[in-house]
Amino acid sequence: MQSYALIGHPLGHSFSPQIHARLFALEGIDARYDLTDIAPENLAAQMPLLRRHLRAFNVTIPHKRAVIPLIDSLTENARLYGAVNSVSIDSDGHTEGDNTDCNGFLRAMQAANIALETSVCVLGAGGVGRMFAIECARRGALVTIAVRETSLDKAQTLASEIETLCGKRPRTCALSELCGHYGLVINGTPVGMYPKIDACPVFGDFLAGVDAVFDCVYNPSETLLLGRARAYGKKTAGGMAMLVWQAAIAHERWHGTHFQEADIARIITDMERALTEKERGL
């Protein structure tokens, strides 16, 4: 039996073991997937054990950046985003760090039939917001980065980075100033995440003027943002799709697997159902 794990700290409830168990079953691989809580001060000391006992592992906060100097090589995506969420280990113990969040996002958008080649408003300029903005700009989107007034300097810095990478500078604005039409709005902030489920990152009737909304938050399964968008009849996609797809892409990199979209869709639906039952205390 092959061994895999998710490392992070602290590790509370996670859907990762369930998701990866389903993916291993689709591949016909006999494997176990554990949650391995490693405090930041112990990460370096634990790396030799991870190399020795695991076939591959995933990485979550707070180790996505801290693990980089401890592994042997990085993929292009890991270098671009300065963060690793997946590490493969070959038979010689060589480790390669990857970032599958970006491709997980792209596959989730593709599966939801949501186009990125449009006017896109990204809410937030932090780690995941930065990734969303860059990926959309790389695919020809007209990007607006909307943030709290206290984060406008960060948004401007990100806009300059994207201008260097893609040749076109995104517009930046405060969240309170958002108006007009967008083909897609992407929430790259934790606003609306459990337990603060009554929060929404946008105000008023702004959502009436958009075509589609993606929220990276997956708990709750329907955030207030997505609920309001659906009430306006907009196309929506939630964070569980990205969570499952980034895991599937890690498996594709680890094993050379190609998953059918319908199989991944079933896992997403089942995980959303499990989350809803958990929310209801069933």
TrEMBL record:
<dbReference type="InterPro" id="IPR013708">
    <property type="entry name" value="Shikimate_DH-bd_N"/>
</dbReference>
<feature type="domain" description="Shikimate dehydrogenase substrate binding N-terminal">
    <location>
        <begin position="6"/>
        <end position="87"/>
    </location>
</feature>
<dbReference type="GO" id="GO:0005829">
    <property type="term" value="C:cytosol"/>
</dbReference>
<comment type="subunit">
    <text>Homodimer.</text>
</comment>
<feature type="binding site">
    <location>
        <position position="246"/>
    </location>
    <ligand>
        <name>shikimate</name>
    </ligand>
</feature>
<dbReference type="InterPro" id="IPR036291">
    <property type="entry name" value="NAD(P)-bd_dom_sf"/>
</dbReference>
<keyword id="KW-0028">Amino-acid biosynthesis</keyword>
<dbReference type="GO" id="GO:0009073">
    <property type="term" value="P:aromatic amino acid family biosynthetic process"/>
</dbReference>
<feature type="binding site">
    <location>
        <position position="85"/>
    </location>
    <ligand>
        <name>shikimate</name>
    </ligand>
</feature>
<keyword id="KW-0521">NADP</keyword>
<dbReference type="GO" id="GO:0008652">
    <property type="term" value="P:amino acid biosynthetic process"/>
</dbReference>
<protein>
    <recommendedName>
        <fullName>Shikimate dehydrogenase (NADP(+))</fullName>
        <ecNumber>1.1.1.25</ecNumber>
    </recommendedName>
</protein>
<feature type="binding site">
    <location>
        <begin position="124"/>
        <end position="128"/>
    </location>
    <ligand>
        <name>NADP(+)</name>
    </ligand>
</feature>
<feature type="binding site">
    <location>
        <begin position="14"/>
        <end position="16"/>
    </location>
    <ligand>
        <name>shikimate</name>
    </ligand>
</feature>
<dbReference type="GO" id="GO:0050661">
    <property type="term" value="F:NADP binding"/>
</dbReference>
<dbReference type="GO" id="GO:0009423">
    <property type="term" value="P:chorismate biosynthetic process"/>
</dbReference>
<feature type="binding site">
    <location>
        <position position="76"/>
    </location>
    <ligand>
        <name>NADP(+)</name>
    </ligand>
</feature>
<comment type="similarity">
    <text>Belongs to the shikimate dehydrogenase family.</text>
</comment>
<dbReference type="InterPro" id="IPR022893">
    <property type="entry name" value="Shikimate_DH_fam"/>
</dbReference>
<comment type="function">
    <text>Involved in the biosynthesis of the chorismate, which leads to the biosynthesis of aromatic amino acids. Catalyzes the reversible NADPH linked reduction of 3-dehydroshikimate (DHSA) to yield shikimate (SA).</text>
</comment>
<feature type="binding site">
    <location>
        <position position="101"/>
    </location>
    <ligand>
        <name>shikimate</name>
    </ligand>
</feature>
<dbReference type="GO" id="GO:0019632">
    <property type="term" value="P:shikimate metabolic process"/>
</dbReference>
<dbReference type="GO" id="GO:0004764">
    <property type="term" value="F:shikimate 3-dehydrogenase (NADP+) activity"/>
</dbReference>
<feature type="binding site">
    <location>
        <position position="218"/>
    </location>
    <ligand>
        <name>shikimate</name>
    </ligand>
</feature>
<keyword id="KW-0057">Aromatic amino acid biosynthesis</keyword>
<dbReference type="Pfam" id="PF08501">
    <property type="entry name" value="Shikimate_dh_N"/>
</dbReference>
<feature type="binding site">
    <location>
        <position position="239"/>
    </location>
    <ligand>
        <name>NADP(+)</name>
    </ligand>
</feature>
<feature type="binding site">
    <location>
        <position position="60"/>
    </location>
    <ligand>
        <name>shikimate</name>
    </ligand>
</feature>
<feature type="binding site">
    <location>
        <position position="216"/>
    </location>
    <ligand>
        <name>NADP(+)</name>
    </ligand>
</feature>
<comment type="pathway">
    <text>Metabolic intermediate biosynthesis; chorismate biosynthesis; chorismate from D-erythrose 4-phosphate and phosphoenolpyruvate: step 4/7.</text>
</comment>
<keyword id="KW-0560">Oxidoreductase</keyword>
<dbReference type="InterPro" id="IPR046346">
    <property type="entry name" value="Aminoacid_DH-like_N_sf"/>
</dbReference>
<feature type="active site" description="Proton acceptor">
    <location>
        <position position="64"/>
    </location>
</feature>
